[in-house]
UniProtKB/TrEMBL annotation:
It holds the Pfam family HicB_lk_antitox. SUPFAM superfamilies: TTHA1013/TTHA0281-like. Residues 8-64 form the HicB-like antitoxin of toxin-antitoxin system domain. This is Type II toxin-antitoxin system HicB family antitoxin. Gene3D superfamilies: 3.30.160.250. It comes from Dyadobacter luticola. It comes from the Bacteria.
Length: 70
């Protein structure tokens, strides 16, 4: 995992999967059957989120690390 963005990982009983949210990147989420799989999928989604933002000429938030209210 080479991302410096804060990741929030939790178990979703409803989905029966681990979910990873990336609060600094609007709408950026991933899931997986294991924590490791969910984190690996999160890195893929983060890379895609950033690539898409660049293509659209949008600002890419700087990773701030731990959020105050997370």
């Amino acid at each position: 995992m080479n991302s410096k963005y804060e990741l929030i990982i939790y178990w979703s009983e409803e989905d029966a999967r681990f979910v990873v949210e990336v609060p600094e990147l609007s709408g950026c989420m991933a899931d997986g059957l294991t924590q490791s799989e969910a984190l690996a999928n999160a890195q893929i989604v983060i890379d895609q989120w950033i690539e898409t933002a660049k293509e659209l000429g949008r600002d890419i938030p700087r990773a701030k690390g731990k959020l105050m209210y997370a």
